[in-house]
Predict the 3D structure of the following.
Amino acid sequence: MTEITEEKLIVSDPNSLTIAATKSENKSIVLFFKRYYKQIIPTTIFIVTILFVFIGAAVVGDPEVEHLIYSAKQDRDILAYFAPPQKGLPLGTNQQGYSWFVVLIHALKNSLIVGFTAGLLCVTIALFVGLIGPFLGGMVDDIFVFITNIFLVFPVLPFILLLGTIMGSTSTTTIVIVIALFNWPWAARSIRSQVLSLREREFVKVSKISGLSEIKIAILDIIPNMFSYIFLVLTILINVAILSEAGISILGLGQSDIWTLGRMMDLDRKTHIIQGYYHLWIPTGLTLTLILVLMYVMNTNLTEFFNPRLREK
Amino acid sequence: MYKVFTMEKNMLKITPVLTKESIGDRSKLIIKNITSNSYFKFILRKAIFYAIVFFIAISLAFWIPRLLPGDPIASLLQPPHNIKNIDAWNARKARLEEYLGLDLPLWRQYINFLLNFLKGDLGYEYINLIPVNDIVRPRLIYSLILVVPTVVITFVLGNSIGAKIGYKANKKDNIIYYIFVFLQSAPFFWIAYIFLDIFVLRLHWVVADPPSSIDPFLSKFKLFLMCLIVLILTFSGGWATGARSMMIYETESDYILYCRKLGFTDKKMRQYAKRNAILPQLTGLNLRFNECLGATFIIEFVFNWPGLGWTTIEAMTQQNYTLIIGTFVINIMIIVIGNFIIDILYGFIDPRIRVGDDN
């Protein structure tokens, strides 16, 4: 009897318990990191980049406004069309005298926003088409598959060129809509095949037997189970959208409402490369490349995380 | 050796388990398959599908300029600001009006448009009154000699490298993999910028001036090579990373594990896995082809390569309506015919499509 009470005492000693707990927690964090470092590192870098870009854009202010303030103060020597990099101007200035670094931060922010908006729009269309088709079946499904197949082979770039020429100038909204309109088909196709395989699972059959309506099954059973997949599709689509925006801008069909990476690269092509301003055109392309590579690595590693069969090697 | 022998024996034992009736059904099915020739049906179905795609695209090319707000056709008929020769302008305008048939009702214009197109008449170009066909034909060849080699070379190169680095996936392979990841996700036009800077502007090895007329091909050979290298570099990445992950997937499959247990050679297993890993990649060929065509446009534009993409953008800056429509139509034709050929090839390589049922 006495021994048992002693044991109880030891266990109930609050100090020893907390120590043990923190030790095991520390260990588990290290283990967690060791196991998932491939997922944690790119995701963290990505989140930090986004924070840095958004806070940075708010801090440095608008490039045009900033330029006006500087020229009012006569701060920079003659301000500087194509000023070389110097203190306060990490990347020098462009043809209009805007600090290229400030422009770059804004462009990255805007490109991410454009990419995210277009990507989200794409996913919405793809989810709608990929989910409704298999659930309604019959004619509707056939029509949706047919439309998807048509959009899959539709000549995107010639069409954008035609649209751009005829409309004269493009706005950011048009670009987002055009990108979204032409990039959903493959996403819809893969979401559809996911839905088809999920529909055959036991838990969906149980829901059916218990009398849930098709819509409820779609919302309660199918979508939550595809959440990780949809997230992965979204990251790819953001990548595609950022790249498409840049491509459209380089062809001279871009918008001129806001600074984006595409608009900057268009200027690079027109003047900066020919005149040999390496400090202007190298950082632009490098930023675009790095953000795309980062998102691609994040996407593949998260795919490994969600699909353990790929994780072995 | 003995184990292999027993395996085959077992397989032989399994097959005759079928009853007489099912054998009869099966032979009937085979006969039906041969007589109905589902490969032919498959091709026919695809042909109809692409004809519909073509029709829709052409119709959009007609209706969009006419239905968009702001009447773009009318704005095309406005004379430019700094016009010198007003008579030439009026002749041009009359020519365009005649071609478009603007006095006819809209549906008649549409039918005329389709009929003209079926006759192969793309009208006259707007600035110098040259037939659009004559302008587009050489440009088409300039584009095709970039697109077709790129698609073929990147498919073969990317997939074989991807399959190679996916089989063992050790440290050395992973370094190659990350290079391909970089090439895949890096924007191809920026790589084109780097090439432009190094080889054209610094080293002066290649001349990339805007083409005044169609130059003899040999003088452009270096430029052609440069365009091709940029396209191949950037487009093999996607194939390689895809083939690698397919290969990893395959090497974990049961049949490879079984082969390993049976003591197959590494080379043999690699061969089996590679074939199965690359086959699904073929389904991506359509998408890649379209992507590659788009990329070729931008590369043409950056390097001043006088292909279709360059012509389209040139027509765009001149507001040359008939030439824009002409290049658009030719682009659609390339995409539709290219995709059709890829589908036929796919059916040719994968027997499941050729002999399978009509799904």
Residues 126 and 320 of chain B are 6 Å apart (CA to CA). Chain B touches chain A through 58 residues (CB under 8 Å).
